[in-house]
Amino acid sequence: MFFTKLVTIVAWVLLVGSVTRIVIGLGIATEILGPYEEALRRYGGRAESSGAIIDRGVYALLVAIALGALAEISRSVRGPRE
Predict the structure, then answer these.
(1) Is 6:45 a contact under the CB 8 Å cutoff?
(2) Distance, CA of 82 to CA of 68 (rounded, Å)
(3) pTM for this structure?
(4) How far is CA 65 from CA 26, 27, 33, 55, 77, in A?
(5) Distance in Å from the first CA to the final CA of the chain
(6) Span 15-69, pLDDT tens digits
(7) Which of 14, 42, 55, 77 pairs with 4 at a CA distance of 20 to 30 A?
(8) CA 77, CA 62: separation in Å to the nearest integer?
């Protein structure tokens, strides 16, 4: 039960972080956050392009979905004993 709750929390935090990263990458790419180079330096950290930021966000999103699915499986296997 402890690990199910822990994985659920981690999955939610990772989901929010990955969606935020994707939105920031899209904001940099469309220059909503300012000129491309300036916004990339300010919001991109050490990323070489906005595409790299979006890619990392998508990878983190896939991990968050996988963790969420594992948490749901764990919850359903445990059954009504909780």
Answers:
(1) no
(2) 19
(3) 0.87
(4) 21, 23, 28, 15, 18
(5) 8
(6) 999 999 999 999 999 999 999 999 999 999 899 999 999 999 999 999 999 999 9
(7) 55
(8) 23
